[in-house]
Amino acid sequence: NPLQGAQFVLAAHRISQLPPDDGAEVAFAGRSNAGKSSALNALTGHRGLARTSKTPGRTQQMVAFSLPPLPQGEGEAPLTVRLIDLPGYGYAKVPEELRAHWKQEIDAYLHRRRSLRGVVLISDIRHPMKEFDRMMLDFCFATHLPCHVLLTKADKLSRNQAAQALAALRKELAAGGTQATAQVFSSQTPTGVDEARAAIVTLLQT
Ligand code: GDP
To answer: Distance, CA 128 to ligand 1 centroid (Å)?
Structure first.
């Protein structure tokens, strides 16, 4: 697992508090309760890495996790790599002011962060493409950032229903003219974990 060995670095309320903008990083975004923390834990193979919660709406922060450096070509220094967990909202009632703060902060982060290589968007397969997801896709489109969508909680649907949801999303993404990719995922069964890890490593090395 190339994402094994992830470690908590810091939690930040604004982008200026994030680790130095060097190397490469991938950001995780998702509506609250979509299953983002569970996905981070499954992908890194670290059960307690991101705090999962049944009660959405807890304090929101951006959280930086370091990964072991990725080996590069001969004669090149290994690449410093990170995962950034972006705050999610949209499920529980979040005060309008806080929502606006994070919308602006996420937008600024996507525009300014030079080490950012792409976004992993976590979306509940039963309720995909809510307002938060559309906003993230719009931001990625505007900043030319690759976006990879994990349709998570796939274990809640039959195989057939999950495949249909994926096909519908891919069709919608293509119609919207985005370069975004998508896959089925579950932190529980687990499903699609290797595929997602490979997508993340590809983003980091782009
Ligand atoms: P976050 O708010 O996006 O970080 O969501 P969490 O990871 O905390 O998950 C929210 C809820 O969904 C928790 O009750 C999780 O146990 C549940 N959950 C997350 N991922 C999955 C999944 O793949 N399958 C199922 N069945 N439940 C999940």
So the answer is: 14
Nearest alpha carbon, ligand 1 atom 27: 153
CA 13 to chain centre: 18
What ipTM was assigned to the predicted interfaces of this complex?
0.99
Instruction: Decide: 82 in ligand 1 pocket, CB within 6 A.
Output: no
Torsion angle (degrees, nearest 10) of CA 64, 66, 71, 72: 20
**Residue ranges of domains in the chain, CATH in brackets:** 7-205 (3.40.50.300)
pLDDT digits (tens, 9 = 90+) for 122-176: 999 999 999 999 999 999 999 999 999 999 999 999 999 999 999 999 999 999 8
The amino acid present at 75, given as its one-letter code, is G
pTM here? 0.95
Q: State in Å: Cα 35 to ligand 1 middle.
A: 4
